């Protein structure tokens, strides 16, 4: 745990008692603050009370006595309308912050030079965060990994000289971190997402830009116009990362699966990603090149980086190999909750038996049409089935399966008869999970279990 000592002796309001909220309350209390916590869920209020965290309905609180409101990142700050706690805090002149702001203040007070790597972007954040942490740990660094990737940042060991914090940050978390100033700030890419929470794309991009604008050194993927513009405005040290044949100024290039350091003449090959399953596809070439930029900045040699890549296990639910039956490979990409994320998986395979659907997001799957020729058959599940069927009609053969269990059974049977070189049964839903599952993790876990229950399956991965 990282005790939040910068609010010692003061009262702090807290709204949102999920995993990170509860960790924040305990951190504040350990640091000497007086916490008054609130949540819309009575069960969470009761669970906090069992840990001796003071709870109350903040509607009736005296806000003049609070030094800050710590807001869960899942609670609206601005759009579609500020949460009622935000209105009360602002009326009383109380700053609204998040748990990563508490970490930043603690780092500034305790160990201002401690390495702090912050990673954001629309897609690829979790893979890149995990890859950076893996490479640094393999090189002998003391690494703490958390934030949006799973472990609440205040549950990690505190900042200290020589200890590297590698932290994934969502736009919601950045918005609640006014003093964000990482030693290395990473922006992977930008495509429309969460616009219901930010208003429009310009506002969303501006929030993401804050992470690299305040960093000592910025690493930016420049393959989309929004990120390229942000890199162009960057005044301080910057590493550009490109995927493809051409670059935008000197930087790192991920070309056909080979990372090339083009910051000096002549350009130097760093690592070949061929054969590394968790790093398939051009999007993962970018993730790996960005990981190298960060690792090199922290003293990891090219040889050590290339060796560490070979041991990267990948992430659950993101291009995760879960089983093989004969030539058929089964891939769990449940974390692909929008079309842009599903595109990455579709671009990495041929002869795809594609399981998709769930709670649809704006735009559907029309943007994926260039990849339809790769799809041997689509298996539709959940609430999006009819809308997706209309998009696929005349382009991709499909079956309405309803449930994930039915889709896995039909896809596995069809793929077994597919005479392509390496047929793939791919769960890449391009949808949220909430129509049939509590989370994308549960959806992916169910898929993994269904696959491994198939006769003749050879499990792959953990």
From TrEMBL:
It catalyses: UDP-N-acetyl-alpha-D-muramoyl-L-alanine + D-glutamate + ATP = UDP-N-acetyl-alpha-D-muramoyl-L-alanyl-D-glutamate + ADP + phosphate + H(+). It is found in: Cytoplasm. It holds the Pfam family Mur_ligase_M. Its EC number is 6.3.2.9. The keyword ATP-binding applies. The keyword ATP-binding applies. Cell wall formation. Catalyzes the addition of glutamate to the nucleotide precursor UDP-N-acetylmuramoyl-L-alanine (UMA). This is UDP-N-acetylmuramoylalanine--D-glutamate ligase. The lineage of its organism: Bacteria, Pseudomonadati, Pseudomonadota, Alphaproteobacteria, Hyphomicrobiales.
